[in-house]
Amino acid sequence: MTQHSSTLSHSVDAIIRPLTAQDDAAIAAVIREVSAEYGLTPDKGFSVADKTLDCLSEVYQAQGSQYWVIEYQGKVVGGAGVAALAENIGVCELQKMYFSRAIRGQGMAKKLTQQCIEFAKNQQYQSMYLETTAVLVEALALYEKLGFNHCQHLGETGHDACEIAMIMDL
């Protein structure tokens, strides 16, 4: 996989790189931290409740899947992944996109989403699907700006609290 380096506001490099097993605890902590910040509690059906949250590096070993983390000042501060959407041939899902406050507003979400889109195209997916919630205002605005359109929910993602479904043709 390719690594991308982007300069944040304090002339410090952030690196987007593939997730490793050594990153599992750190990205799980980021997802839990951001979820708590936005009130996305495990009892409500958000990804913070996923049983696989502590072993994402294993989950993203599947064919057509990849998860990337953002490393900033030596710490994992965000990430996002792509995986096939079950029972939907040619459709992948943008998954578990979370960012610590340290890197929000620096353009990293856009950069990482674009990397996910490129990966999906290279994997021959025809569409990218995602589920989100209205509480994540910044994410929703980004998805719309990048060309995702609102749609019906597809498949069983296990995130029944995510009331917004979006899709984009690749």
From TrEMBL:
Keyword Ribonucleoprotein: no
Protein's UniProt keywords contain Transferase: yes
Alphabetized UniProt keyword annotations: Transferase
Top-level taxon of origin: Bacteria
Domain N-acetyltransferase intervals: 14-170
Regions that span the bilayer: none
PANTHER family recorded: GNAT FAMILY N-ACETYLTRANSFERASE, LD18367P
Name of the protein in question: N-acetyltransferase domain-containing protein
Family annotation (Gene3D superfamilies): 3.40.630.30
